[in-house]
Amino acid sequence: MDDLDRGRELAQVLAGLAPQRPTVERHKQGGGAVDVLVAKDTPTKGVTTLATVSMSSRNAVVDDRERDFGVELVTCHGESVTGCVRPLVDAAMYYTRNQDEFQPGTVLPHLVERHGISRTMKHFFLIAPFIFDGRLTSVRTNEKEVRYLLAVPISDEELAVAGADGSEALDRLLEEQQIDIYDWHRASVAT
Questions:
Q1: How crowded is residue 15: how many other Cβ atoms within 10 Å of its Cβ?
Q2: What are residue 49's DSSP bridge partners?
Q3: DSSP 3-state assignment of 4?
Q4: Cα–chain-centroid distance for residue 144?
Q5: CA separation for the pair 118, 75 (Å, rounded)
Q6: What is the pLDDT of residues 124-163, one digit of tens each?
């Protein structure tokens, strides 16, 4: 199975989660390309879901060892936010170029800030996707398992929590405060 076939297979799975037919956009950057599925009104009306479908062509690295599954990213934004695909593409290109570890608890600094999308949210924090009632946690293609990670925008203060107390502490804080992951202009829940 080639990358295009795997991307189509992932897009079909994701399309099954959307109320209307999503589109797949190719974003070229620095000699590479990332395919991103765009699903409007998903998982709820007024929210757009963006999901990569081309990162999993290489196996994931966890604890400095290559694993037999691939990784893709998903993020969501409300109608009032634009340009959110750009930091997602940056994250995917970084992953592809650097063979870095992406797993729950990974922080991707300055990706949101770089594109001027929000005055409050500056970074991505990767967590296990809880949206879609857990149906997006792991997807099986004909070739391999693909694990999705939810890229949640976070503030400088929230990043400081992860730096001081660990990513588990930040994950707990975001869950306890029940942040609106669709609102990229939300106030920070850390001080």
A1: 16
A2: 39, 76
A3: helix
A4: 19
A5: 15
A6: 999 998 877 777 777 777 678 888 999 999 999 999 999 9
